[in-house]
Prior knowledge:
Blueprint lengths: L3 H27 L2 E8 L12 E8 L5 E8 L3 E8 L8 E4 L1 E2 L4 E3 L8 H8 L3 E7 L7 E5 L2
Antiparallel strand pairs: 1-2, 2-3, 3-7, 4-5, 4-8, 6-7, 8-9
Amino acid sequence: xxxxxxxxxxxxxxxxxxxxxxxxxxxxxxxxxxxxxxxxxxxxxxxxxxxxxxxxxxxxxxxxxxxxxxxxxxxxxxxxxxxxxxxxxxxxxxxxxxxxxxxxxxxxxxxxxxxxxxxxxxxxxxxxxxxxxxxxxxxxxxxxxx
Length: 146
């Protein structure tokens, strides 16, 4: 004969496990940081006199995956990247961005930060840089400030 209390306990255990999984998965999604960024020539190192500008959103999830894009105006961009360095300094490329429109640069699918790069992100030491033929070192830049 079936024991109703045993079946009830099994059902409650399954319900609890399902709820815990939902909360755990939801916590990973909720902890992604979306950072709005504004790019300008005066943030370049050294500063660049340009009418060019840009805006965008870069998201970094708890698993260190990166997504997002920036759009520029007044910049004939030749390439764009996320770099690692504090404001006022130049640094190495962390993630090359892909041109996804006339003036839009997007983080490629599957992009991920290393542990050290993620720590730099949290400290505000990553930036987006759009380069041009006129300014191959970078025409507009915006620091990512989580």
